[in-house]
Specification:
ABC transporter involved in vitamin B12 uptake, BtuC; two-stranded antiparallel sheet; globular
Length: 360
């Protein structure tokens, strides 16, 4: 087990370094004079102030959860590419409760928002799960379809129904529906003149870590998790062993959707005033979660660290623009790095084969 852990660690380091190297080359091709200062700014961003560290953790919270959603599905033999739709549905429900349920005390409203987001995401995840279980329709196809259904349904709802018909094009939570900072504002801050500027990081990161630990326990330490994984590894063998494979497929997708839904809720309850737009755009956090899951080697604990790393890249990359690099080029550099991270399983398998051949 120690050797397997070391192999996983080495594989992750190799793909990260390869991605960073190719990203640097892209910058050099664009502007060799500013490439190295800009690259150093990106990779050193999170070490400069505690406020930056807090911002990284804040940005990591939703993508850790979408990464866990993809990881849970992968561990049970499924591929949840529908995390974007589940994320958006969960975020919408959380905002709706925050806006409409003002008769509830703020603490109760926050809890209800998170639970309702989990329920909404779970229902949205159940649709591809049911089609997979009872009609053998591949979950990749149906989850892509549910992504676009969610995107257009929410766009229509925001524009034409619940909120100020014909006028409102964005939804924003009231301030008392944001997650509490729990004292983080005194830790993750930086001096500005005679005062301090704090990060908006809050207990959302603790919720994400707690869910990651729960996913790990469910998958690796419980009979329920064993049954889910058994259906993923071999559906027919699981059925022969007396496991209800259809029920477990649906339950797996429901859990995936619930996790992504909570990610959507925490994304909009982060105290930054982030709003949900009526523009029909897919939530990129859902697709970023795929890279986060594979960079973390589909290990729930590994996903915590890979989510923090990817958040670090996004926030650090945004600091390259003052060096004359356009936002599009910055996106290309970050995308290249993340793209290379998706090859971590391939690198791990090749390293394993090389070590095995040397032993022979």
């Amino acid at each position: 087990m120690k050797r397997a852990g070391l192999l996983s660690f080495l594989s992750t380091i190799i793909v990260i370094l390869a991605g960073l190297a190719i990203g640097l080359i892209v910058l050099m091709v664009s502007d060799i004079g500013q490439a190295f200062p800009a690259f150093w700014t990106m990779i050193s961003f999170g070490t400069r102030t505690m406020r930056n560290v807090g911002d990284v953790l804040l940005g990591a919270t939703p993508i850790i959860l979408t990464g866990l959603s993809v990881t849970f599905a992968f561990k049970t033999g499924l591929f949840n590419i529908g995390a974007a739709g589940q994320f958006a549905v969960g975020g919408f429900i959380a905002i709706y409760i925050g806006v409409e349920f003002t008769f509830l005390p703020p603490a109760i409203r926050i809890i209800c928002s998170i639970l309702a987001a989990a329920l909404a995401g779970g229902i949205w995840g159940a649709m591809p799960g049911l089609l997979k279980a009872y009609r053998n329709v591949h979950e990749v196809i149906t989850s892509i379809m549910t992504n676009y259904i969610a995107m257009h349904l929410l766009s229509f709802t925001i524009r034409n129904t619940i909120f100020d018909i014909g006028r409102t094009t964005t939804l924003r939570l009231p301030a008392d529906s944001d997650l509490p900072a729990l004292g983080f504002q005194y830790i993750f801050r930086e001096p500005v003149g005679t005062s301090f500027r704090s990060s908006a990081v809050n207990i959302g990161i603790l919720i994400a870590i707690a869910i990651a630990i729960m996913v790990y326990i469910i998958l690796d330490k419980t009979t329920f998790g064993y049954e889910l994984k058994a259906c993923g590894y071999n559906k027919d063998a699981a059925k022969y062993a007396g496991i209800n494979e259809n029920k477990n497929i649906v339950l797996s997708m429901v859990i995936c959707g619930a996790i992504a839904g909570v990610g959507g809720a925490l994304n909009f309850m982060n105290g930054t005033g982030l709003s949900m737009s009526a523009m029909p755009v897919l939530a990129m956090e859902g697709f970023t979660g795929i890279a986060v899951a594979f960079l973390g080697l589909t290990n729930p604990i590994g996903v915590i660290f890979s989510g923090i790393f990817v958040s670090y890249l996004f926030l650090g990359g945004a600091r390259m623009q003052p060096f004359g690099f356009s936002l599009e080029l910055v996106d290309i550099v970050i995308s290249v790095i993340i793209y290379f991270c998706a090859f971590v399983l391939l690198v791990k398998n090749n390293l394993s084969k090389m070590i095995f051949r040397r032993k022979e």
